[in-house]
Design goal:
The longest helix has 23 residues. This protein is about 40% helix and about 15% strand. Helix 4 runs antiparallel to helix 11, helix 5 runs parallel beside helix 11 and helix 6 crosses helix 7. It has 2 domains: about 140 residues, Aspartate Aminotransferase, domain 1 (Alpha-Beta Complex), CATH 3.90.1150.10; about 210 residues, 3-Layer(aba) Sandwich (Aspartate Aminotransferase, domain 2). It has a 7-stranded mixed β-sheet with strand order 2-8-7-6-5-3-4, sandwiched between helices. It has a 4-stranded antiparallel β-sheet with strand order 9-10-13-12, covered by helices on one side. It has a two-stranded parallel sheet with strand order 1-11. The protein is an alpha/beta fold. The structure holds pyridoxal-5'-phosphate. The site of pyridoxal-5'-phosphate (PLP) has 13 residues, from helix 6.
Length: about 375
């Protein structure tokens, strides 16, 4: 059998994705107990699920029965929370699943999407999996969008969609309302990924004026329980879609994509939105403290952020070495081995104790990372 004729060529030729090491493997490799690892590399919520969610999970029943394919309880709770119809909401195993689902719905081989790097890697990754082209319209040095160039690309290449994160990962900047208006005028779909919106000032999302762009509209919004609700390990996200997309999304969605545990955790989280908001506020307060502490290090330049992480430019130091040295001490941050970001690190906002450990390690190691 010639395996080359069996594999889909675009997948056979794709670069492999580098998966992260799980927590317990890291702990074993370093000889540091998992509880002592300071994990600030994946923008997770350091506080985990709410206590009521933990209790609900401990008492979970009917895990031997397949979950509700329509996640009715969670969609109803989200509809009430956002004041929008449940009919426009679809739940996914993380926002990640919904990025792929939208692409499977709209992309024929050879179609294209617009991506604005540096940004979240899954947009170009999923486009490649779906045999589509990614047209990049890079951000400027301060991570601002080039809306004129995006408009020109839409006119020239007729992309099926623009994928945009707000706040953007890795810099944490928001798309301004003016830019959003300009992008929504373009004759293409806009997928606005708001994974980090709960750490941004209230009212920043267009969801507050949700009537705009629905029905025949071109706006899709993605959200997740991974960041503000501390449920990254359970995989739970949702999308808010225009009417015309919903019947087709239902057709292609895997029937049991959201587990019984994930749906229950989402519902109980929404019963305690006030507690989630208090914790988000705690992370925002800690973000400001971490920002000031990072700013005091002359060889780090943090960028203003509206998310639960801070991107820093590393000046006159080797960012890869810095990441490796911190990792040896059980402190994990994100280093981007990518053009345009190779001298940058991204640090998730953790607990105050984690901030203290990180800052102490950065101060201790400062001389060791010098390029001189
Ligand atoms: C911008 C952005 N969107 C989506 C996700 C993934 O969300 P989920 O955990 O719901 O798949 C991430 C995760 O880091 C992200 O940074």
């Amino acid at each position: 059998m010639d395996t080359n004729t069996i594999l889909r060529p675009h997948i056979a030729n794709m670069e492999a994705y580098t998966p992260i090491l799980p927590f317990d493997v890291l702990s074993e490799q370093l000889g540091i107990p998992a509880g002592q690892i300071v994990k600030l590399d994946a923008n997770e919520n350091p506080y985990g699920p709410l206590p009521d969610v933990q209790a609900a999970l401990a008492n979970l029943r009917y895990t031997h029965i397949y979950p509700d394919p329509e996640s009715r309880h969670l969609r109803a709770a989200l509809a009430a929370y956002h004041g929008i119809p449940a009919e426009n909401i679809l739940i996914g195993a993380g926002a990640d699943e919904l990025i792929d689902l939208v692409m499977r719905l709209i992309l024929e081989p050879g179609d294209c999407i617009v991506n604005c790097p540096p940004t979240f890697g899954m947009y170009s990754f999923d486009a490649a999996v779906n045999n589509a082209r990614t047209i990049s319209v890079p951000r400027d040095r301060n991570f601002n969008l080039d809306v004129e160039r995006i408009a020109a690309v839409v006119a020239e290449s007729i992309p099926k969609a623009i994928f945009l994160a707000s706040p953007n990962n890795p810099d944490g900047g928001l798309v301004s309302p003016e830019m959003l208006d300009a992008l929504l005028e373009l004759p293409t779909l806009l997928i606005l990924d708001e994974a980090y919106i709960d750490f941004a000032p209230p009212g920043t999302s267009p969801l507050s004026q949700w009537e705009r762009g629905w029905g025949e509209g071109n706006l899709v919004m993605l959200r997740t329980f991974s960041k503000w609700a501390g449920l990254a390990g359970l995989r739970l996200g949702y999308g808010i879609f225009p009417d015309w997309m919903m019947p087709h999304l239902w057709k292609i969605k895997q029937p049991y994509n959201v587990s019984v545990a994930a749906e229950r955790a989402g519902v109980v989280s929404l019963e305690h939105v006030d507690q989630l908001q208090i914790r988000a506020q705690k992370i925002i307060v800690e973000r400001e403290r971490l920002f000031i502490a990072l700013q005091k290090l002359p060889w780090l330049q943090p960028y203003p952020t509206q998310a639960n992480f801070i991107l820093c430019k590393v000046i006159d130091r080797d960012a890869a070495l810095l990441k490796a040295d911190l990792a040896q001490q059980g402190i994990f941050i994100r280093y981007f081995n990518k053009p345009g970001l190779d001298d940058h690190i991204r640090i998730s906002v953790g607990t105050p104790e984690q901030t203290d450990l990180l800052i102490a390690a950065l101060k201790r190691g400062a001389y060791a990372y010098s390029n001189d």
